[in-house]
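Subject: Cobalt-precorrin-6X reductase

B.,
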Amino acid sequence: MSPHVLILGGTTEARALAAALSGRPGVRVTTSLAGRVARPGALDGDVRVGGFGGAGGLARWLREEGVDALVDATHPFAESITANAARAATETGVPAVVLRRPGWRPGPGDRWHPVPSLGAAADLLPRLGRRVLLTTGRLGLASFAHLTRLHFVVRSVDPPEPPMPPDTEVLLSRGPFTLPGETALLREHRVDVLVTKDSGGAATAAKLTAARDLGLPVVVVRRPPLPDGVTAVPDVAGVLERLGLD
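Prediction pasted inline below.
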């Protein structure tokens, strides 16, 4: 029988993995999307949209669909999905691997302020600036809603969900972003502090270089830890090696 690989997707890496697996004869690939992005784009292989109903629902789906391997290639901040995937894999005995792009690392000249959460970022902001570029996605703006004296420029792929700060300007845009474009954005909106999650990858890293060049502080929300006993590989090649398909 053809091996069936389930990818928990939504990232650039998940898309690349689906393409790599679909190109191998006899491999069935299904990518599962949470449905949070309105226009996810075309994907190789089969696609399902929507949640599973927690770890138990995912375990049931793995059994019913005859899944032979599970790849968690979700966003590094999709903490609950990663936890559910780990529990479902343990319950069913399905081999699992986590695909996570490496996180960003500060370099000379960077003025980074690492924090453990969005709430901690909000607590720190008033001491760093008054005009904020917030690039933490469309969810979680409630953590900043009480900051009435700050001006926020919120950039996300889809419209953000309230509650949000009262003085908020929304920019709908999808990466990859360029260094000249990010520099122009920061200058045009007179941004004096940037807030981002440590998503990693090159598509949205230009803002960090632009902030460094302009001498701006950057509040970086650290990634949540992986579940106990779970390790990650950094790229598609690592997944293929783990699955014995390299």
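The chain has two domains: 4-102+225-243, 112-221.

T.
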